[in-house]
Amino acid sequence: xxxxxxPTEMTATEGAIVQINCTYQTSGFNGLFWYQQHAGEAPxxxxxxxxxxxxxxxxxxxxxxxxxxxxxxxxxxxxxKDSASYxxxxxxxxxxxxxxxxxxxxxxx
Amino acid sequence: NAGVTQTPKFxxxxxxxxxxxxxxxxxxxxxxxxxxxxxxxxLRLIHYSVGxxxxxxxxxxxxxxxxxxxxxxxxxxxxxxxxSQTSVYFCASSSPGHPAKNxxxxxxxxxxxxx
Lengths: 109, 115
Hints:
heterodimer, A: 109 residues, mainly beta, six-stranded mixed beta sheet, five-stranded antiparallel beta sheet, B: mainly beta, seven-stranded mixed beta sheet, globular
């Protein structure tokens, strides 16, 4: 079967660092995506990993371990505008994405 | 630069009515997708298309039909709406391979209520 798991909710303080974990099981695998979705808006692309290791993009980093079926999104220097849902998605060979339920992050002052 | 445009943005239907949701993209993407998003369940794939004239079923296709007569358009139809189809519907498009990496770009969504 296909399954993606991530925590439902997380809370962190402005200026802190937060790590959002994602575990996945899919019949095929061609990459792991992270999307950000603010309430009432469409998801927007944050990061992509296809090989094991860390991808860094400004305050956001994403890590992938294919052998463990595991990824995380790291957000540094949290800002209030980072309060959003973060969606983990597995590319099942480009034709059938599987999304996780999303992690709702609240950033407190 | 419009990207992915969905119409309408809001709609209220009565049980049994039919409607069509339109998705248009101006990025020349090969792949297009229709998702529904319900509270606590994330995005679930309804149907997708890998090219003009082709469609395939996703995770939750029952009660929906799709057509892709032109590369830039992907239509989602509800023949006989049911309250269980109350949801937010998102369309997305992408291109496979390098450098596009199959990153999906989403429309703003259609909020549908079926009474």
